[in-house]
Amino acid sequence: MPRGPRFIAVLIAVLALLHGLPWLVLVASPGWSTAVTVIGSAVFLFAAIGFPFAMMRGHGRHHADRSAVAADAWLGIIWQFFVWSVLGGVATLVLRAFGVHGAARPVAVVVAVVTLGLLALGFQRAMRVPPARELDVVLPRLRPGLDGTRLVVVADTHFGPINRAGWSRRTVAAITALKPDILAHVGDLADGSVDQRREQVAPLATAPATLARVYITGNHEYFSGAAEWIAHMDALGWDVLHNKHIVVERGGDKLIIAGIDDLTAASSGQPGQGADINAALDGVDPALPVLLLAHQPKQVATSVAAGVDLQIAGHTHGGQMWPFHLLVRLDQKYLHGLSRHGDRTQLYVSRGAGFWGPPFRIFAPNELSVLTLRSPEAAGS
Question: What global pTM score does this model have?
Answer without folding.
Answer: 0.92
